[in-house]
Write a structure and sequence with these properties.
This protein has 334 residues and is an alpha/beta fold. The chain contains seven helices and 15 strands.
Length: 334
């Protein structure tokens, strides 16, 4: 299946076909980058999610290995973004550090920079002070949000969706306490990972999600303001999805609405990319921002894959997916 969006904006160009996307004639991408999400490797037998979806814990690292080989064979790939959850929360006690290192070693075989996002399963295994240095995330005070500009025309903004979270911070940390207080108000269940009894969008108020804090929201606003002045287009990346149409309600960032309110104040953000919601999804919101959550590497049966690469142009992003990752064309006004 192929998602094709807004043919009117890209009128006159090759739009792709049911078998795959076609790059616009006579145009070269400004840059290209690899994408993968939710590897969630663990040295344990196959299992299932709480919804009964099969999970292939040992196979997922082979998906990553094949992705690395494919990316390294591409001549024009500039970098790779890992959208979080490189190891699974079911990783046996005492094996977390070795499992993170094992998966990270595969990422280090990539011929170029790798930018990591942190997810809930990463934080089940290692606290932030151990995880961030391993993944070379240069956040301040244990935070994992940052931005970079791969070309003068674009900026990539990486959000820390577990800024306010009951996982990853020390037990008595102010951010942990803030998250626990928030969950106590929003989720009456004794198991705060359960959305049982919660209705509609309230189903996102579970412990395996988190929020973007006030300082990070202010940073995001300033970053988008700066990008607007420089006439840069922006791609926002977050482990947690930011749009309910592109994701199940249970996977959304707690304060996705606040984040999107900031984003919608500007015209520079063209796409929001995420992981976490393993089935994947795609939407275009009321302001024309594209939302794409990626299918999980963890849920690939043996000999199937879930990774891809994105070619970036001045008026579109072309996601070329492999197997479970559905190819997606995202067009917008240049």
């Amino acid at each position: 299946m192929l998602f094709i969006m807004d043919q009117g904006i890209c009128a006159g160009d090759a739009m792709g076909s049911i078998n795959g996307l076609v790059n616009p004639p006579g145009k070269r991408p400004l840059f290209s980058f690899g994408v993968i999400s939710d590897v969630q490797y663990a040295d344990i037998p196959d299992g299932h999610s709480f919804l009964g979806v099969p999970r292939y814990y040992r196979h997922s690292i082979h998906v990553l290995q094949r992705a690395v080989q494919k990316w390294n064979n591409r001549q024009n790939l500039n970098f790779v973004i890992n959208f979080g959850d490189i190891v699974d929360g079911k990783c046996p006690p005492g094996q977390s550090l070795d499992a993170v290192k094992k998966v990270n070693n595969e990422f280090q075989k990539i011929n170029g920079p790798v930018y990591h996002l942190i997810g809930n399963h990463c934080l089940y295994n290692l606290p932030r002070d151990k995880l961030l240095p391993l993944l070379k995330i240069q956040g301040l005070n244990g935070l994992a949000y940052y931005d970079f500009s791969p070309s003068p025309e674009y900026r990539i903004v990486v959000l820390d969706g577990y800024d306010i979270s009951a996982i990853g911070w020390p037990q008595g940390h102010s951010k942990t306490l803030q998250a626990l207080e928030f969950l106590e108000k929003k989720n009456p269940n004794s198991d705060k990972n359960s959305p049982s009894g919660l209705l509609g969008l309230d189903r996102r108020f579970v412990m395996f999600n988190g929020a973007v804090g006030r300082e990070q929201l202010e940073w995001l606003d300033g970053t988008l303001q700066d990008a607007t002045k420089l006439k840069q287009k922006v791609i926002v990346c977050c482990h947690l999805p930011l749009d309910v149409v592109a994701s199940s309600q249970e996977a959304l960032l707690w304060n996705y609405d606040e984040v999107m309110n900031v984003i919608h104040q500007y015209n520079c953000v063209k796409a929001c990319l995420s992981g976490h919601d393993h089935k994947g999804g795609y939407s275009v919101d009321s302001h024309g921002v594209h939302h794409r959550s990626f299918e999980a590497a963890l849920e690939c049966p043996p000999d199937t894959d879930a990774y891809g690469h994105i070619d970036v142009y001045d008026d579109r992003l072309l996601l070329f997916g492999t197997d479970r990752i559905q190819s997606t064309e995202m067009c917008f006004n240049p």
